[in-house]
Structures are given as structure tokens and as C-alpha cells.
Design brief:
Length: about 475
């Protein structure tokens, strides 16, 4: 084997629709396979399904499959990505295939499946890849071209794409609306259903609309979830949700920046804490993270993913070599941030204090200490960026550091606070953008800075050193 059937757009449209229905099923279809069942088995190396018939089952319950091209194979179907072809010619996707970790649609060689997206994500990836293979033919260059198509998107983007598009497709099917292309009227009804169902705010709707547009454009149809009318309806949705919030006295608070005074209290508390339990060690980590994220202008994903090999201390300075940064995945460059010890008093003591107690915990555990800078022995192997919310919440609540009226702290508050405080003491926008990893011309920077913040001694404590050479 090694061939791949050509799927043209008409067949691909049908494939999309069938896969949506299959991905929403809850029954375990692998158990339906019997002798003489017609199935299709996905071959990871060839990136496609091959049809065949189950001839018999051995004593271990494995199936002997005779492929249509004459090849034979014995398989544990519960571990394979298969489709069962019923009498009407419609295929069913096994739940085992939907749950297999990284064994579904590879589509390029090294894609690690995000379980949150699961098979939903994979059938979109697979369908898009098949479209290009049908036009370019089967070759190594084709596979490289397909891989580049997929790699243009973050894995998290791919895992979000499928479920959001599926929601719209299922809505279209339930309401029997025109399909491919969907009409603008269908999109408007869909937005109305989102408002009616609740749970999604207008400010969070754009990824759902983008999924609809991407889905259409991948199949060379014009995107339908954009334009003047759609924009107006989304604005109306925001107005209705705001009116409901007022009626229910459930007005959302604004994410605010973290004051330097709060960080200084956290800093002092960390140096006084000698952890004698795992709970106190986690508290020390939370304290230390807040300070380090603050002085380095760190985003949650950057701060939580620091590695030991990229955090350095010498006689004169503390420096971090950032490798994983949001928006820089496609242009991987190490970026070095340096803070002189004389620039931030007691920063060296804090770093040494955290590293000593972290190293001690790993030594006592008798496990190999990993490279992750914030990882403790009882933790999972890696963190999601959202863990920063927990650490900041733990550190601030321990000291009763509260946000101003009408605001709340989040994982982004450390970066917002650093940028606001630095600007308040007179640090140039060029330096603020450098430390924060922003383009100097990015309009998004302005959303992170409160231009009304007044300079104080705590701001000077952490950021006045950035003005020394000015």
C-alpha cells in the first residue's frame, strides 16, 4: 500500500459533514465490528484510510483484516483509528480512535494531538490536508507542503478550530439551513442562538466566527461570518448582554494592573518564609513567581515556562534567556533580559532563597530534578499558563492584597503592573516594549498601561534603574 485516494471538493464537503456527525456520537462503535464487517483502517505513515474486510478474530480478540488491495494484517481494533462501513455505505468513527493519544490523524509527522480538541480537531486537519494532496499529488514535496500548511497554526489554535466550527455545523444541521456556503442569515441566527444559550460573551465570540470563516475558506468558499451586518449584530449582542448584567447586578469587573506596593509586600514575605511543609513551599513559589514575573514584565506563558538553564545569576546581574514567548513561535530566537543586582534591592536574595528550597525539596524526593524552573516534586510534568492565576491569587490572598474597587487581578496583572509602573517612573516606551516583548508600534501595548498612574516609592524600587542611562 502507499497510495492515497483523491478527494475532490464535492467529496470533501461530504467528508466534513460525515465526520461532524461521527464526532458527536457517544456509542463505542469498535464493539460493532464482526466477521465480514467492512472497515477502513488509517495508516499513519501514508496519512490515509485503506478499505478492507474483517475475515476472523483470533483467541486474543484481534481481527484478521483483508484489505481490498490484497494485503493482510492482524489488528487490535480497539487501538486503531478505523471507520466501520455500514450497509448504506456510511462510515462510523470509533470512540477509541477519538480518544487515542496522538495516534489519529498525523498529517505531517510530528503533530501531537491535544486531547481537548481530540478527533474533532483531527478530522479538520485531515480534511484540509487531503484537499491539498488531491491537488498536488502524492510525493515527499506534497507532504512537506501539507506540513507547512498545518505548522502555520499554533497547536492550540488547531485544537480550538475544530470544536468551534463543529458547533456551527451542528446548529446548521439542527435548523436545516443552507450549506456550503452557509448564508449570512444562517450566521445571524447562529449568533442569536449563542446569545440565547448563554455562556459566551460577545467579546469572546470572534474565535467562533473566525472558525466559520476558516472552515469555508479552507474549502474555497467565501467566509460568511464577517461584514457590516455581522459586526452590527455582534455589537447588538454586547448591548443586550450589558443590559442583562445591569438588571441582574452582575456587572463584570475590569482586569487591573498589579501595584508595585503589593509586589513589594510579596517580596518581603517571601524572604521571611522558611517553608516547613509542601503547602508553605508552594506559597514560597507563588511569592517568588509574582516578583520574578513582575520585574521581567513576564506574560503568563513566558513566566510559567521558565527553565533552569535559562535563568542565571552572577556577581553583578540576574538575567533570563527567554525561548518560549507568545507570538514568536514561528521565529524562534533567544532573547536575553538583564537586571543588575543594584537595580532591584533584595532580588538576588529572593532568587537564591527560592532556588535553595526548591533544590532541597527535589533532593529529599530522590527524584531527578527536571529543567522546569517552578516545578516541585508533587506537581504534574508541566504547567498550563493559566496556573499563573492560581499562583498570583494564592500570593495576594495570603497577604490580603486586594484590587481597587471595580477591578480584579489575573495572570496578566503582573505584566500590566510592570508596564504601568515603569512608564510612571519615566522609562521610555522603547525599553518597556523590549522587556515586555512587544513591537514598539503595537497598539495592543496601550491596553496594558494605565497612563494616569502616579509615581511612588515602590515603583522606583523596581523600575527606576531602567532610567539610569536615559
Amino acid at each position: 500500500m502507499g497510495r492515497c485516494d483523491v478527494l475532490h471538493r464535492g467529496a470533501l464537503v461530504s467528508y466534513y459533514a460525515d465526520e461532524v456527525r461521527r464526532s458527536s456520537a457517544t456509542s463505542t462503535t469498535a464493539g460493532k465490528v464482526t466477521v465480514d464487517s467492512k472497515i477502513e483502517v488509517f495508516w499513519k505513515d501514508d496519512h490515509c484510510f485503506y478499505p478492507g474486510v474483517v475475515k476472523e478474530f483470533n483467541e486474543d480478540g484481534k481481527a484478521h483484516v483483508l484489505y481490498d488491495d490484497g494485503d493482510e494484517e492482524t489488528l487490535d481494533l480497539s487501538k486503531e483509528n478505523i471507520k466501520i462501513i455500514n450497509s448504506s455505505g456510511v462510515s462510523e468513527l470509533t470512540d477509541e480512535a477519538a480518544e487515542a493519544d496522538g495516534e489519529n490523524i498525523d498529517c505531517g509527522g510530528d503533530y501531537e494531538e491535544n486531547k481537548r480538541g481530540g478527533a474533532v480537531e483531527n478530522f479538520f486537519t485531515h480534511s484540509l490536508c487531503e484537499r491539498w494532496r488531491s491537488e498536488l499529488g502524492q510525493s515527499r514535496l506534497t507532504e512537506l507542503a501539507v506540513k507547512m500548511q498545518r505548522k502555520a497554526l499554533l497547536d492550540t489554535t488547531m485544537s480550538d478550530y475544530g470544536p468551534k466550527a463543529r458547533r456551527f455545523i451542528l446548529f446548521r444541521e439542527q435548523h436545516q439551513r443552507p450549506w456550503l456556503p452557509a448564508t449570512e442569515a444562517t450566521v445571524l441566527l447562529y449568533i442569536a442562538s449563542v446569545l440565547q444559550d448563554g455562556g459566551i460573551k460577545s467579546a469572546s465570540l470572534q474565535p467562533y466566527l473566525s472558525a466559520i470563516n476558516n472552515y469555508h475558506e479552507d474549502l474555497r468558499f467565501p467566509g460568511q461570518a464577517k461584514g457590516r451586518v455581522v459586526t452590527r449584530v455582534v455589537k447588538g449582542m454586547a448591548t443586550i448582554q450589558a443590559e442583562l448584567a445591569v438588571q441582574e447586578e452582575n456587572i463584570e469587573t475590569q482586569r487591573t494592573w498589579l501595584p508595585a506596593g503589593h509586589v513589594r509586600r510579596v517580596h518581603e514575605a517571601a524572604l521571611k518564609l522558611t517553608p516547613r511543609s509542601s503547602e508553605e513551599l508552594r506559597l514560597l513559589r507563588a511569592f517568588s513567581y509574582v516578583v520574578v514575573a513582575f520585574v521581567t514584565f513576564g506574560r503568563p506563558d513566558t513566566g510559567t515556562s521558565l527553565s533552569r538553564q535559562h535563568v542565571h545569576c552572577d556577581d553583578s546581574e540576574f538575567f533570563v534567556v527567554l525561548l518560549k514567548e507568545k507570538g514568536r513561535r514561528h521565529h524562534l530566537v533567544k532573547r536575553r533580559l538583564c537586571i543588575p543586582w543594584r537595580g532591584v534591592a533584595l532580588l538576588k536574595e529572593l532568587i537564591e532563597h527560592w532556588e535553595f528550597h526548591c533544590d532541597t525539596a527535589w533532593s529529599r524526593s530522590e527524584m531527578t530534578q527536571p529543567d522546569a524552573y517552578w516545578l516541585l516534586p508533587e506537581d504534574p510534568k508541566n504547567f498550563k499558563a493559566s496556573i499563573a492565576n492560581d499562583w498570583i491569587g494564592l500570593a495576594l490572598s495570603e497577604l490580603d492584597c486586594r484590587p481597587p474597587e471595580g477591578g480584579h487581578f489575573s495572570a496578566h496583572s503582573t505584566q500590566k503592573g510592570a508596564m504601568t509602573c515603569a512608564r510612571a517612573v519615566g522609562v521610555t516606551m522603547e525599553k518597556v516594549c523590549f522587556f515586555g516583548g512587544w513591537s514598539q508600534f503595537s497598539s495592543a501595548v496601550q491596553h496594558y498601561i494605565d497612563p494616569t498612574a502616579l509615581r511612588d516609592a515602590d515603583m522606583n524600587y523596581y523600575f527606576e534603574w531602567l532610567t539610569w542611562s536615559q
